[in-house]
Amino acid sequence: MDLVSACRVFVHVSERGSFTLGAAAARVPQPVASRRIAALEQHFGERLFDRSTRRAALTPFGRDMLPSARRLVQLAEAMECDAEQARLRPFSLAVPRTCAVRQLALLDAAARGEGTVLDLRAADPPERAELLRSHTVRAALLALPQNEAEWTVPLGVASREDDGSGEGARPLRLETLRPGRGQRTFRRIRIQPEDDVPHVRDRLEQLGHRAALVSAQITVAATLVAAASETLRDGGFLLCSAPQATELGLRWRPLAGEPVARGYGLSALTGDDAERVRDGLAAHVARSLGATTADGTKGGG
Q1: Pair (113, 212) in one structural domain
Q2: Are 290 and 153 in contact (CB under 8 A)?
Q3: What is the pLDDT of residues 45-97, one digit of tens each?
């Protein structure tokens, strides 16, 4: 027997003195209301209503039980309200600052369609890890080496459209940036904060060393805005993904040779939180990152 549903009918019938009106108030058919009262009486072993009158009058036992029934119904309704509020509590997720606003909006819309309200926190890699470690967020997209990642983002270099190289979208060979003897100026590759992680930064520096670039040609910028601004000003390059280059209005080219890529993995405070993101939102997360999944499926840009 559903004790709460039976008590709800009991309370409504007793307040209205009618099985018909009480059933309507409880939003159940009158025969269902009668069966629930009968089940409740059988459960308690006593009559709740006097059947000898036309009005649904309470028996002495029914009057004694009514206050407890009201408390039970009120508590159940309060629990349902609390559960609804808990379901609507935002799910905090730390994401890279490089995610495009439109793609984050689509991710948020998809989450709402799944009954989840997202609280998206844009942060750089160390901040995202700390937000999760301090339990400030429930889940985070953490920077990982490509071979450990759920999603990968191929990286190349972007430059202003009028850089004068005439190279089109051909892959950039780093050795072509090698300064000539006595040359005092050279083109730089700037690393934005999102890629200031060992598996990206160190990899690019190794490739630069093999190409005989001077150390000052690969630098880390304090912010993405600073990196993009300097790239536009001096005709250098910004290490970034193709979708990010498009968003910034820059011309993107892949790097020749061995690939350089961002890697991301989802980490959450609980397994349920992780499944909540992976089960219904993985494709939207991939699109937000401009990524491919571990099985090679493209997430879009």
Answers
A1: no
A2: yes
A3: 999 998 877 788 999 999 999 999 999 999 998 888 877 766 667 899 999 99
Whichever domain contains 242, its CATH number is 3.40.190.290
pLDDT tens-digit readout, 145-203 = 999 999 999 999 999 875 555 555 789 999 999 987 767 778 999 999 999 999 999 99
> How many residues does this entry show for the chain?
301
AA letter at 78: A
Give the C-alpha separation, 157 to 251, whole Å.
Answer: 8
Both structure tokens of 10 = 């009991």
Pairing type for strands 218-220 and 151-159 reads: unpaired
Same domain, 155 and 218: yes
Q: How far is CA 195 from CA 70, 121, 215, 229, in A?
A: 60, 18, 17, 17
Considering just the CA atoms, what is the radius of gyration of the chain in Å?
32
Contact 296, 289 (CB under 8 A): no
